[in-house]
Amino acid sequence: MSDSDLIVSMTIMSMAAVLLVGSRNVELRTRHREGGYPVERQWPGHGIDVTRMAERIQRVRNDYVSELETRPRRISQQKDLLASVRKVVGRLPYFQKASQTSTDYETSDPA
């Protein structure tokens, strides 16, 4: 088999491989298009009554600064929340191990 025959056969084989991959790609695309998206569930709609909020919204639109100042401040509630989160995080195993090792270093005598 000469070099030219080898080149021709390799060219034919590579073209066949490209056609095979291309046809598979086209087949997958058409199959995907035919399937389309799944049917969405139709949720029954219901409205909400915003008449109680309409007056407040109008006040915010007119003067949002004064409306912001009328909001109650809950600093004590925020402090309590931060303290409880600190306790919860402190109870995680990672921080339990870290606190144990740090106390070991503090109690050990460096001399």
Which consecutive residue ranges, at least 5 long each, have pLDDT under 50? none
Portion of residues in helices?
Answer: over 70%
Structural class: mainly alpha
- What is the count of DSSP helices, taking H or I runs of 4+ residues? 5
State mean pLDDT (0 to 100 scale).
79
Largest sheet: none
Specify Rg, calculated over alpha carbons.
Answer: 36 Å
Shape: elongated
Give a count of the beta strands, DSSP E runs of length 2 or more. 0
* Fraction of residues in β-strands: under 5%
- Secondary-structure element series: HHHHH
What is the terminal-to-terminal distance?
Answer: 85 Å
Structural features, described:
By secondary structure, this protein is mainly alpha-helical. Helices cover 74% and strands 0% of the residues.
